[in-house]
């Protein structure tokens, strides 16, 4: 009996080993090919680099750089990717985009239809980076596909936003995204398209609302100050808080009184953001309370109070006096921190 | 009569070991499958592209890098230097001088023009007293905390108390980080909107690589057989074990070399324990425990991309000490939290992870060791016993060499970190030999660790550091 | 006649310190594209701060202009800036060209005496304008 088991086991072991050896063979051949291909790509990149730079930086005419083979295309893609990270001037971007369209349009068009997820994702990344607006239609088609993965969809939406696609709003409403995803998409919209979202704020789901307010914050979009104040007044909870944050970033409110009261709120987040607002608009009436907030229980509130105080012209003097006179070690600590920020 | 009885006993014993091995082989196969599926998806993604979008998010998730240092004057400046050029928007570096008796403190103060600062440090975790705190006048995000000697865990706790940011990572003085390490490791945390509270990065072996100024210039394979076998081990442990376990939130070890943790949860769990050898694993277990007890749905994950390169022993004596220490540390962590084993209250950690670690990771070497002895005895006894020996030998080939070979291929299939074709062939052929020499050796050392524990030996021996970077 | 005109021009040593060779070559070309009449230009690129200081370039007589990358391994851009500005006997002009965009970082560099700060990615025209502005400030 045991003989049979041993035989059985030996056969399994040997066949698995053979399988692994075959895999090894396959992988080594694949690797050798890869290495050769990589060398060719690097050689070609070195060969055309000076020319490409002339085209992008000086506007020299595009002449005779072939991109028929996949090696040349890959080389071009990698070279352009590097330039995209370094150069952002209007002229440079346009020339780079033209170059990309000339060489890689067909390549990406095919890749978008590839069965491999990673191929499609990479194509999307590059379409966005190289601003290949001629492929807009293909991307729109992709946005309507049913069985597309979530990550792809996010990327497609970002591209549509970057290309300022007119039908963008309807497309976005089809999907349920996280607040962070909405934010990164909305950031790319121009004023008109973003406005549409502001107009339909009340119909939006909370994550979208947070995102809209965050984008206003990040862009310090002063044109939306009245809208934001409105939202602050009419909503409660997290939306109210985000609106307050946006106002703090914009640095303007029509009347400071209601906000001064928030410095005494029972919610620490509200105290913190209110403190930020006071510092941002430099409302001197808020200074005494800010000094009190340096002694707040919550670290974030103390820190924000310190930051806000340091934004006033006599901020350093105030912090210095807290450092010298306060009995609270944490307050003194925070004052010291903000006196020494940036060494 | 006696012969028959004797044969029965031997038979039972052999079957016991054989059955154990088969169970483990099945388990490994399952994990291998899971890992293959995971790696396949991300394969060939232009990963660099994926991080640009997160820059804003990364700004708001700053990280404190804690570097515990004890007598590291040889390499501390280099380590700090390489950390300074890390590609991450907001971070601080806290070097904790654990009562070094050499020039570590002076070198740091001198090189980075550090000045004493008076800061209140809230003692959220109890530690040995802090003597002085310094801040660099050139680089305001570099701090140096001088304290009384208390061991690595204590130094980490001090760093934790002092840190300003919500996330921290602990780094060994001799590890070299890839420039995008933090981006890669923080990504799961950000993606999950902080549902993930700790994330570990894959560790690779630096021996044989060309390293300059704290950066990997070229990845290379060492010629030292011990190093090669360790590389295979690490590949196996990381690519197979951790990916599989991480997928289902079963991860129990974030290797001491590199991992980012949420400060809040680590402090809530009580910080690092100072009386154990495996303090990193122990903390992870404790965090898992806390999460389950509080019924909070948080996760601990692992990133398969290598992010950290570290030096491993090239010398048998030192390797032996390391293995003994690791196994003891494993036991201490498991034993301290033994209440979790098979305890449904702790979900899959209690029902799957813990039993796995007890049965496979901890008992495994002991059973394997018995298996090896048994095999040798059988060969001597001859006759029918040889069959048992062959049986166990084949099983241990499957258990050992074959999975290692698979791990090597898995690495080449998905991550392709080693540049030369000969590298892969070399790794593959060496892993073929694992069952014959390396595995029995390490198994024996790990059993030694258990033995030491049983007889109450608590010395760890010194780990001489060679210094990785030029 | 030609030679005397040449001799009247002072030398301007432009040193580029960036660990990325591609950016080095780019910057050299961008600078060469510029029209800088007032000085005789000498452009050189270095891989890191240590190499730069070891070459003793600052000992050469003439105006010195550095374009320094922010994030670098051996010597961080900020360290180079500080070292160069701490030597009060020489007036060295420094333009930081860095991927670090946070206001903190920019303020820190400006406080340490950086003459300008350009973030990556940058526009070629913009960079050239800023370089010209700094050169204008140099005495002839």
UniProtKB/TrEMBL annotation, chain A:
Bilayer-crossing residues are 6-29
Q: Which UniProt keywords apply?
A: Membrane, Transmembrane, Transmembrane helix
Q: Which InterPro entries match?
A: ARM-like, ARM-type_fold
Q: Identify one Pfam family in the record.
A: HEAT_2
User: Does the UniProt entry include the keyword Membrane?
Assistant: yes
Q: What is this protein called?
A: HEAT repeat domain-containing protein
Top-level taxonomy: Bacteria, Bacillati, Bacillota, Bacilli, Bacillales
Automatic annotation (TrEMBL), chain B:
Coiled-coil positions are none
MF terms (GO), sorted A to Z:
glycosyltransferase activity
Q: Which residues cross the membrane?
A: 12-37, 356-382, 388-410
The answer on whether this UniProt entry bears the keyword DNA repair reads no
Cite a single Pfam family from the UniProt record.
Answer: Glyco_tranf_2_3
Q: Which UniProt keywords apply?
A: Glycosyltransferase, Membrane, Transferase, Transmembrane, Transmembrane helix
Q: Which domain of life is it from?
A: Bacteria
| SUPFAM superfamilies the UniProt entry points to | Nucleotide-diphospho-sugar transferases
Family the UniProt entry places it in: Belongs to the glycosyltransferase 2 family.
Which protein, by its recorded name, is this?
A: Cellulose synthase/poly-beta-1,6-N-acetylglucosamine synthase-like glycosyltransferase
What is the originating organism of this protein?
A: Neobacillus niacini
Automatic annotation (TrEMBL), chain C:
Segments crossing the lipid bilayer: none
All copies of the Response regulatory domain together span 13-135
Which residues, renumbered to this chain, carry the PTM 4-aspartylphosphate? Answer: 69
Q: Record keywords: DNA-binding included?
A: yes
Q: Which GO terms describe its molecular function?
A: DNA binding
Q: Which InterPro entries match?
A: Bact_response_regulator, CheY-like_superfamily, Sig_transdc_resp-reg_receiver
A single Pfam family it belongs to is Response_reg
Spell out the protein name for this chain: DNA-binding response OmpR family regulator
Query: Can you name the source organism?
Result: Neobacillus niacini
């Amino acid at each position: 009996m045991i003989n049979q088991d041993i035989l059985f086991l030996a056969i399994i072991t040997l066949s698995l080993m053979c399988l692994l050896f075959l895999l090894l063979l396959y992988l080594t051949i694949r690797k050798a090919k890869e290495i050769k291909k990589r060398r060719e790509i690097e050689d070609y990149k070195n060969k055309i680099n000076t020319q490409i730079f002339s085209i992008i930086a000086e506007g020299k005419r595009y002449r005779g750089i072939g991109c028929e083979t996949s090696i040349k295309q890959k080389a071009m893609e990698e070279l352009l990717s590097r330039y995209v990270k370094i150069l952002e001037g209007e002229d440079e971007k346009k020339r780079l985009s033209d170059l990309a369209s000339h060489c890689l349009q067909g390549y990406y068009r095919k890749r978008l239809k590839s069965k491999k997820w990673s191929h499609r994702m990479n194509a999307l990344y590059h379409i966005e980076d190289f601003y290949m607006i001629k492929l807009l239609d293909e991307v729109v088609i992709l946005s309507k596909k049913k069985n597309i993965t979530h990550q792809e969809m996010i990327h497609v939406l970002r591209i549509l936003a970057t290309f300022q696609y007119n039908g963008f709003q309807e497309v976005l409403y089809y999907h349920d995204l996280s607040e962070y995803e909405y934010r990164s998409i909305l950031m790319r919209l121009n004023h008109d398209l973003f406005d549409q979202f502001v107009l339909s704020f009340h119909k939006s789901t909370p994550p979208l609302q947070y995102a809209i307010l965050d984008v206003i914050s990040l862009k310090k979009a002063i044109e939306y100050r009245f809208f934001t104040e409105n939202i602050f007044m009419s909503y409660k909870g997290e939306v109210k808080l985000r609106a307050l944050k946006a106002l703090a970033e914009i640095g303007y409110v029509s009347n400071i009184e209601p906000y001064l009261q928030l410095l005494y709120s029972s919610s620490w987040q509200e105290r913190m953001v209110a403190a930020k607002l006071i510092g941002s608009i430099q409302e001197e009436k808020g200074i005494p309370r800010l000094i009190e907030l340096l002694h707040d229980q919550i670290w974030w509130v103390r820190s924000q109070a310190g930051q806000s105080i340091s934004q006033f012209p006599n901020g350093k003097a105030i912090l210095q006096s807290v450092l010298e006179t306060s009995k609270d070690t944490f307050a003194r600590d925070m004052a010291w921190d903000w006196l020494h920020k940036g060494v | 009569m006696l012969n028959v009885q004797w044969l029965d006993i031997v038979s039972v014993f052999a079957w016991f070991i054989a059955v154990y091995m088969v169970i483990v082989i099945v388990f490994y196969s399952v994990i291998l499958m899971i890992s293959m599926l995971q790696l396949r998806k991300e394969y060939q993604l232009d990963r660099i592209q994926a991080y640009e979008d997160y820059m804003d998010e990364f700004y708001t998730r700053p990280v404190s890098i804690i570097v515990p240092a004890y007598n590291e004057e040889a390499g501390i400046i280099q380590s700090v230097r390489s950390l300074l050029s890390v590609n991450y928007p907001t971070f601080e570096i806290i070097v904790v001088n654990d009562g070094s008796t050499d020039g570590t403190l002076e070198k740091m103060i001198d090189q980075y023009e550090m000045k004493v600062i008076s800061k209140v440090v809230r003692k959220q975790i109890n530690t040995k007293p802090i003597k002085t705190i310094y801040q660099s006048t050139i680089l305001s995000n570099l701090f140096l905390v001088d304290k009384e000697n208390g061991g690595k865990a204590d130094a980490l706790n001090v760093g934790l108390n002092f840190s300003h940011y919500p996330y921290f990572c602990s780094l060994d003085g001799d590890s070299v980080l890839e420039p995008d390490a933090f981006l890669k490791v923080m990504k799961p945390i950000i993606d999950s909107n902080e549902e993930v509270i700790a994330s570990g990065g894959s560790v690779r072996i630096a021996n044989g690589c060309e390293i300059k100024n704290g950066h990997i210039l070229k990845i290379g394979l060492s010629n030292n057989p011990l190093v090669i076998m360790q590389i295979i081990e690490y590949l196996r442990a990381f690519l197979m074990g951790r990916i599989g376990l991480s997928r289902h939130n079963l991860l129990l070890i974030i290797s001491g070399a590199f991992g980012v943790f949420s400060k809040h949860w680590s402090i809530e769990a009580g910080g690092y324990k100072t009386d154990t050898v495996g303090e990193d694993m122990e903390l992870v277990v404790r965090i898992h425990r806390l999460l389950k007890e509080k019924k909070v749905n948080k996760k601990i994950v692992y990133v398969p991309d290598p992010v950290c390169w570290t030096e491993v022993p090239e010398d048998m004596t030192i390797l032996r000490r390391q293995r003994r220490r690791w196994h003891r540390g494993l036991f201490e962590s498991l034993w301290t939290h033994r209440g979790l084993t098979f305890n449904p209250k702790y979900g899959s950690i209690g029902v799957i992870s813990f039993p796995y670690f007890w049965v496979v990771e901890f008992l495994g070497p002991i059973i394997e060791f018995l298996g090896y002895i048994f095999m040798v005895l059988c060969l001597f006894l001859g006759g029918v016993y040889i069959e048992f020996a062959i049986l166990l030998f084949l099983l241990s080939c499957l258990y050992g060499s074959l999975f290692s070979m698979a791990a090597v291929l898995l690495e080449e299939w998905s991550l392709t970190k080693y540049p030369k074709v000969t590298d892969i062939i070399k790794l593959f052929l060496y892993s073929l030999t694992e069952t014959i020499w390396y595995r029995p050796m390490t198994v024996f050392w790990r059993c030694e660790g258990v033995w030491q524990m049983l007889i109450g030996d608590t010395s760890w021996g010194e780990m001489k550091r060679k210094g990785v970077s030029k | 006649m030609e030679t005397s005109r040449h001799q009247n021009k002072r030398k301007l040593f432009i040193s580029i310190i960036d660990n990325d060779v591609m950016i080095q070559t780019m910057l050299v070309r961008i600078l060469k594209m510029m029209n800088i009449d007032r000085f005789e230009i000498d452009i050189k690129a270095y891989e890191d701060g240590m190499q730069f200081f070891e070459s003793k370039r600052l000992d050469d007589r003439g105006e010195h202009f550095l374009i320094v990358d922010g994030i670098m391994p051996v010597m961080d851009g900020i360290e180079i800036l500080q070292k160069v500005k701490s030597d009060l006997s020489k007036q060295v002009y420094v333009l930081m060209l860095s991927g670090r965009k946070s206001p903190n970082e920019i303020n820190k560099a400006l406080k340490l005496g950086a003459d300008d700060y350009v973030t990556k990615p940058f526009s070629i025209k913009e960079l050239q304008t800023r370089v010209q502005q700094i050169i204008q400030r140099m005495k002839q």
